[in-house]
Amino acid sequence: TKYVYRFGGGADDGGNGDKNLLGGKGANLDGMAAIGLPVPPGFTITTEMCTRYYVDGEVFPDSLREEVATGIAHIEGVTGKSFGDAADPLLVSVRSGARVSMPGMMDTVLNLGLNDQTVEGLAATSGDERFAWDSYRRFIQMYSDVVLELDHGAFEEALEIAKEDQGYHLDTELSAADWKALVGEYKKLVEQQWGKPFPQDVHDQLWGAIAAVFGSWQADRAKVYRRLNDIPGDWGTAVNVQAMVFGNMGDTSATGVAFTRDPSTGENTYYGEYLINAQGEDVVAGIRTPQYLTLAARERAGAKALSMEEAMPETYAELAKVFQILETHYRDMQDIEFTVQQGKLWMLQTRSGKRTAKAALKIAVDMAAEGLITEEEAVARVDPSALDQLLHPTLDPKAPRDVLTKGLPASPGAASGILVFDADTAEKRSELGDAVILVRIETSPEDIHGMHAAKGILTARGGMTSHAAVVARGMGRPCVSGAGSLAIDAKAKTLRVAGRELVEGDIITIDGATGEVMAGEVPTVQPELAGDFGTLMVWADKVRRLKVRANAETPLDCRTAREFGAEGVGLCRTEHMFFDAGRITSVRQMILADSEKGRREALAKLLPEQRSDFTEIFEVMAGLPVTIRLLDPPLHEFLPHEEVDFEEVAKAAGVGIETLKQRASELHEFNPMLGHRGCRLGVTYPEIYEMQARAIFEAAIDVADKTGEAPIPEVMIPLVATRRELELMKAIVDAQAQAVFAERGKTIEYLVGTMIELPRAALKAGEIAEVGEFFSFGTNDLTQTTIGISRDDAGRFLGSYVDKGIFPRDPFVSLDIEGVGELIQIAAERGRATRPGIKLGICGEHGGDPSSIAFCEQTGLDYVSASPYRVPIARLAAAQAAL
Ligand code: ADP
Ligand code: MG
Ligand code: MG
């Protein structure tokens, strides 16, 4: 197997920009070089090598040594320099690069190939001794940190002491001799901490770095990131070795990062930051404040430092041309790293840029309008889950704001929560149910789990392209970065700003759209659903086959659902209506009654209430199907649980307290989930379902009379296991329908069907479909009953189950396609066999989960039903599943 692929200088090893093989970074370096862009020459060691490295027990095959030697020879040939040559040394960077960009991987090592001899050669060939020794000390520092994993604090301290001794404030004040002296200090530090001298052999340096990149694939923080992002552990990372170019060779040199469109708003304008006379990571690390790329951005921000467009107009023009070429080539917004060495532009990276949901929408819609991509591609481009960000409220512009300070609007959305100062606390507090805002001086890959747990992220340092900003945008968390006036003391857990001190636990609000940081909680308003969102939804609806309904049980929910494009109600739970303050007493009287007669009296009081519930819902949903589930939970849920409430309840219901207590203890169940609930209630107390069915039909006819448009009630019987159960329940419903139709002299269309939420029902679906006119897969209960895991108790162990790969994801969030999914397929098949064309839907939590929706599409269900806010997500996911 070939493990090394060269790029640049006209090399073509046939990697063809394959991300799986070369990793994202390597693939695009290869791709850029192939279309003639200026890329420093280099080579990529494939992800397959990484996988083999672990299979073989962390050793390299001999063949790799030969291939790497050939790769180095390639770079030497193109640059005319030699690796390790004391006179004119070749320096390289060693860069990790998985298939997808992955914080948590090894940081890049720059300037590799410097040692006590080659540094002299670099000084001589560049004619700049200071540059050479500065590069050498950077190299030792980076190598010691990321490859040798020594304590980097000691190196920073040594630099600070050197500056203090000389009375300097800035790094730029250090002379060649100062850097040289510091290199001496650094080498001593390495020897102290590592027990060996800093490696002088450039090949040792190189292999050390290569092993460190592969080693970082199994680092804890990389594993955490993979788990959070569903990245398989066996993908591996590639290693890129590339000739160095220098942005730190004076004022005609620079380094920068840019996006071909604004990653925050999606606007079609270049967005970026650069630094003159700087190297590599200086821009993202937030050590110096970067300058704007474009004049327009600088003016908008009112910044003084010249933009690149002004400072280096020719190179900027060249760069702008490259942006165009890259967008046309990759047909997507690109995130780019470049370096200018003495006026010459070099491209160091390009990838599809991370963007906010708002930008993703706008870019997809704009690019389709520009003809760069098709409407269908635009639909495929937007991550349905990311829409969540747009569908949720933003800060009420009219609400008063107690603004503490302003930072950069790094990732939009607003969040309020308690202040926490470290990632572990963020995780802990959020597990306890607190909304938290994670506040850091700056974030690093070690903070990922805390950022994930937080509702919002606030940093004191770093620009729009800082780690915090990039990660937050990717996760859809609001983020304000670079709020420089925050004085954060992470140890003491305090934050001083604007003359005030806040401590851990204090509530703050951040607005990622404006960069404002506010004390206390600020109220929010509903999002705008027109514009790009509307356009994309129209395109999605064109390709979608699955219908999308909502789980909704109040008129308000129904209205929200319709606004979001729901095509019916897939699950209207009726028990919540029973809890309503005005009627819980009648419900309790019904439960406490000792005879059918007593129950009927109480139910008669409930009938008009229940009818008016349905009337309101039917009015909102006129003309659309509404699936109503008859009473499902065990009756004791309606009785008081606290001793203190007993007296009051007994009085209101008109029974003695002893009767109440006795009835409550009679109704007690050891396992209510599998107890007296669902159709089992209808079997024992048919009068309950009779009342509900009557209420449904009376309401439907009322609405038909009033609006001229009848709803289509789909009466759904819960927890059916056998054909006979459904037969009995259907008879009750049909009898009520006939009675109401006769009374009112009018009939309407309706269906009676069942939830499939027990394995027996799925297996006997053929028989059940002889009676039932539709199935709705109640995947919450079906998951519980199939796996035998109670959702309410699973929290304690499900995490370990996912960690250990027993389930790829929480089966209550993402359908267990192999197990529960097979039961659904069986039920669908057997149901269709007896009742061709039987209507099939899903109404569990999974109805709003994109990967579960893809399964529903494959299984040929008719609709999915999701909570109102997830309806647009489901519409888009359904469209993508159909593509
Ligand atoms: P990351 O994935 O963290 O961005 P990179 O490998 O892209 O890591 O490198 C980090 C920084 O170092 C970037 O700013 C990049 O432009 C710079 N860099 C990497 N390789 C070179 C090189 N050969 N010459 C100059 N700068 C480089
Ligand atoms: Mg990079
Ligand atoms: Mg259920």
TrEMBL record:
Residues 434-515 form the PEP-utilising enzyme mobile domain. Substrate binds at R573, R629, E757, G778, T779, N780, D781. Its cofactor is Mg(2+). Mg(2+) binds at E757, D781. It catalyses: pyruvate + phosphate + ATP = phosphoenolpyruvate + AMP + diphosphate + H(+). NCBIfam families: PRK05878.1, pyru_phos_dikin. This is Pyruvate, phosphate dikinase.
